[in-house]
């Protein structure tokens, strides 16, 4: 038994470096309401990881745990997604998911309340045009992670990418102080995108209020009309339950970013490649 535990530790951490020889059978997660957490719970069942614990927390707590482990070359398994600044800062890899529990690549969609086009046609048109690339989002996330205020980071990105932003604003007439509320979850990716859209709306004369909530209340807020829009709908997997629950009470404007991914993530120095290896 002791030999087996040692072999498992060496598999995860690798040899030839001053790393911990003990592995906590924990997967460091984020907020409990996230679809990523539900998918991870399903993965624990599907891969029969009965001895593993999924630790609930937040995106900030997860990245703090990752940073500490990475700096000490210790083993760690986290719930991860891209785009995210951690992939720019650290050498990380996704564990292979042969059972496809986490699904294929996802999109991030723009979701608005049903009457937004009638009430705020200019804001609707901008939100419908909003589209950017993962590298754009990551550049804003890195600036925020390095200490810049999210709005300042967004303003700088907008200033440095006028050609892209102008496409969102083409033929739109400015308004005079109309109010728009954008809902978002406190994920680094959504903080970046929501602030960028807010800055673009402000260029058109809108007064923009940002409402940070959990994923469920975010979707409920759009469905009830308490919030006007969000650019944070991870589909078709992460927010699938909310999409189905509130179907017919919102308008889906489609993807504003393609090619996202979710799954279990580890530092590249760990000699493990698949979720299946966690049972060895």
Characteristic terms for this protein:
alpha/beta; D-Maltodextrin-Binding Protein, domain 2; Dipeptide-binding Protein, domain 3; 2 domains; five-stranded antiparallel beta sheet; disordered N terminus; amine transmembrane transporter activity; carnitine transmembrane transporter activity
**Into which percent range does the helicity of residues fall?**
40-55%
The portion of residues forming beta strands comes to 15-25%
Count of DSSP helices?
12
The CATH architecture category of the largest domain equals Roll
Q: Total domains, how many?
A: 2
Overall average residue pLDDT: 90
Describe the model:
InterPro entries: ABC_Gly_betaine_transp_sub-bd. It is globular, with a radius of gyration of 20 Å. Helix 10 (188-203) links the parallel strand 6 (179-184) and strand 7 (207-212). The chain has helices at 2-13, 35-46, 59-71, 86-89, 116-119, 121-129, 134-145, 150-160, 162-169, 188-203, 215-224, 240-245, and strands spanning 26-28, 53-55, 78-82, 92-94, 106-112, 179-184, 207-212, 229-235, 251-267. The protein is built from twelve helices and nine strands. It has two domains: 2-104 and 263-279, D-Maltodextrin-Binding Protein, domain 2 (3-Layer(aba) Sandwich), CATH 3.40.190.100; 107-260, Dipeptide-binding Protein, domain 3. With 280 residues, it is an alpha/beta fold.
């Amino acid at each position: 038994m002791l030999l087996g535990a040692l072999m498992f530790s060496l598999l995860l951490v690798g040899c030839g470096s001053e790393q911990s020889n003990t592995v906590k059978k924990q997967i460091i997660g984020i907020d409990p309401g996230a679809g990523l957490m539900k998918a991870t719970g399903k993965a624990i069942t599907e891969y029969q990881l009965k001895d593993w614990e999924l630790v609930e927390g937040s995106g900030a707590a997860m990245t703090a745990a990752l940073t500490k482990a990475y700096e000490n070359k210790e083993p760690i398994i986290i719930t991860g997604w891209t785009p995210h600044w951690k992939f720019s800062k650290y050498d990380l890899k996704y564990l292979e998911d042969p059972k496809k529990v986490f699904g294929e690549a996802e999109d991030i969609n723009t979701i608005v309340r049903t009457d937004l086009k009638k009430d705020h046609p200019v804001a609707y048109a901008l939100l419908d045009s909003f589209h950017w690339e993962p590298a754009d989002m990551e550049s804003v996330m890195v600036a925020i992670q390095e200490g810049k205020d999210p709005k300042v980071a967004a303003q700088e990105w907008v200033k440095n990418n006028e050609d892209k932003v102008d496409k969102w604003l083409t033929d739109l007439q400015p308004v005079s102080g109309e109010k728009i509320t954008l809902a978002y979850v406190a994920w680094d990716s959504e903080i970046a995108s929501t602030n960028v859209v807010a800055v673009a709306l402000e260029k058109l004369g809108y007064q923009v209020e940002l409402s940070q909530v959990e994923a469920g209340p975010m979707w409920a807020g759009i469905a009830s009309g308490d919030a006007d829009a969000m650019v944070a709908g991870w589909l078709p997997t992460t927010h699938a339950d909310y999409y189905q629950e509130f179907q017919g009470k919102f308008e889906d404007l489609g993807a504003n970013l393609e090619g996202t991914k979710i799954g279990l993530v580890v530092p590249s120095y760990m000699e493990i490649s698949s979720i299946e290896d966690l049972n060895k």
